[in-house]
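Quick check before the chapter quiz. The format below is the same one you will see on the exam, so make sure you can read both the input and the output lines.
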Amino acid sequence: MIIVFALVALLVLGAIGALHWYAWRRLVRDTTRGPGLARRVGTAVLIAGPVLMVAGFAAELASAPFWLQQTLTWPGFMWLALSLYLLLALLAGELVRPLVRRLVARRAAPAPAERPVPVVRELEPETVPAGAQSAESAEPAEPATAQAAATEPASAEPGQPAPPAATEPPSSPAPVDPSRRLFVSRVVGGAVAAAAVGTVGYGTYGVVRGPKIKRVTVPLAKLPRAAHGFRIAVVSDIHLSPLLGRGFAQKVVDTINSTQPDLIAVVGDLVDGDVDDLGPAAAPLAGLKARHGSYFVTGNHEYISGAEQWVEEVRRLGLTPLENDRRELPYFDLAGVNDLDGEDEGQGPDYAKALGDRDTSRTVVLMAHQPVQIHEAVDYGVDLQLSGHTHGGQLWPMTYVADATNPTLAGLERYGDTQLYVSRGAGAWGPPVRVGAPSDITVVELASKQA
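Here is the expected output.
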């Protein structure tokens, strides 16, 4: 097992090194004239970036001191996102480079020389004496003869073959101007760097500013008329960590409370770390306010961080953990099951315990972190499942990977008589960056078909 892990690690490190060598070649070597300050700085950046990236992941996986995690993960994880978009932009640059080269060559080529237009002058006939005219006509045309002699090859000696006519040497392709090549590399490299930095910068801003509110109406056949318009604030994947701390948690709480929900559902992946380090960051959750309370189920990252300690911590903060459990609310049942990753610790989802003995005439809403849990929800007659986990892909083009591995990437879909709503989540895992998958807190408004 250790050998397999070591081989995989070497392959990953080799791939990282190859990709960064390619980036160095295009962004540093091809855009500088030779050894100098610019090349040294660029080389240092493209060496330090991947080193910090690997060190950041190692610090988090090894549960290094919290201050060290904070020091390494910010630059390391940000470089991960930047290197992804540098690579994508460089590949796009390879397609654009020939077009730029042709455009620059066309603009630099000298204009073709214009041929002089012959001027034809019409001369009036002159009166020439007859004698003079005959004399002139009798003389040979010396200029024409001289011109012909100049164009004819020199006569050879008697008995010798005539020398071949002089011909111009074949033209060879003009060498590429080094300054032109450098200019093209700088134009393409500058565009690549600007695109990557701009994309990551905007994606970081989207996370740090906090999630936006999304509203969805879900009609439920068995929901009583009295519950029409019941609002559930669904939040998932907050991912409190060395990167997203107390200030981010406060933004999430303030956003949820601004919707004045009837109930709050926190559907897993609250944290990336243990209570000792992230307990202060999670403290604002005590300020969540909803008429029918706040509820919590575990996600896969809780089992990485220590699920039992976090279940007790959220209970202390005023949330109600639903560990394979159910609550009968005035108008419907609210159930929750543990995440699939809890199976390794003997704490996996137990649908029979959460749903087996309920009154099937009542509407039931299930909190389950991963969308793939929808299949068991259908078997147990769940009306609505609330999930997260996917992040909506978080970083395009990883959207396609997340879509291929989950039944629903984001939004509302129906599976038989069961509806599934998947939130993109409020935070981010790894780099605090989102591209093509904006974060959200969703207000799910239940609608009664009897209303």
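If your answer matched, good. Residues 260 and 290 are 7 Å apart (CA to CA).
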